[in-house]
Amino acid sequence: MELTDADLLARVIVKGDQHAFGELVRRHQSPVRGLLRQLVRADVELADDLAQETFIRAYKNIRSFRGEAKFSTWLYRIAYNVFRENARKRKELVGIDESQLQAEVDPQTTDPGLRHDLMNALANLPLHERTAVTLCCQNGLSHDEAARVLDIPLGTVKTNVLRGREKLKKMLAAWATE
């Protein structure tokens, strides 16, 4: 029987079990790396570096996890903070209003042309919308969970989901007729 995230967390916190943390990393590294790749506009090397920093911080701060949200939500919050710190250093956040967010996408699309256009459309969304799209649609977070990760009001998340969807629909309108 496979252990739950909660069981693995207990082993890490109580026993310092590094193998249990390794299993948590194995389970969550793809979604975390995916989120970071979207945020850094597909710079794979940078996304991998930020993901590594995310898991290092998670391990160092594992005792601060209170269980009020899912482990993945807590991890996405750390990843988003790591991204923001890095972006500030690179001055990518200048002038960006981080109080807005969201959109919709099917990351499992099998048509390579559609997938390419979708990734380009996502990359052209403002950072706050791209972040929300990735969290809610690709990583499956609820609006409430995304609001916690991004530390913004739930209403803001909902509003921006609608805005992001509208923008993506316009950018991908040619695919609707095919």
Characterise this structure:
With 178 residues, the chain is mostly helical. The protein has two domains: 1-94, RNA polymerase sigma factor, region 2, helix turn helix motif (Rna Polymerase Sigma Factor, Chain: A, Orthogonal Bundle), CATH 1.10.1740; 95-178, Arc Repressor Mutant, subunit A. It is 70% helix and 0% strand. The chain has helices spanning 5-15, 18-39, 44-60, 71-90, 112-124, 127-138, 143-150, 154-171, 173-176. Helix 1 (5-15) crosses helix 2 (18-39) and helix 7 crosses helix 8 (154-171). The protein starts with a helix and ends with a helix.
Estimated radius of gyration: 17 Å
SSE string, helices as H and strands as E: HHHHHHHHH
CATH architecture of the largest domain: Orthogonal Bundle
Distinct helical segment count = 9
Low-confidence stretches: 93-107
User: How many structurally independent domains?
Assistant: 2
CATH class of the largest domain: Mainly Alpha
Please identify the structural class as seen in this structure.
mainly alpha
Helix content: over 70%
Number of strands: 0
Mean pLDDT: 83
The global form is: elongated
Strand content: under 5%
Largest sheet: none
CATH homologous superfamily title of the largest domain: RNA polymerase sigma factor, region 2, helix turn helix motif
Write the layout of secondary structure elements.
Layout: H1 5-15, H2 18-39, H3 44-60, H4 71-90, H5 112-124, H6 127-138, H7 143-150, H8 154-171, H9 173-176
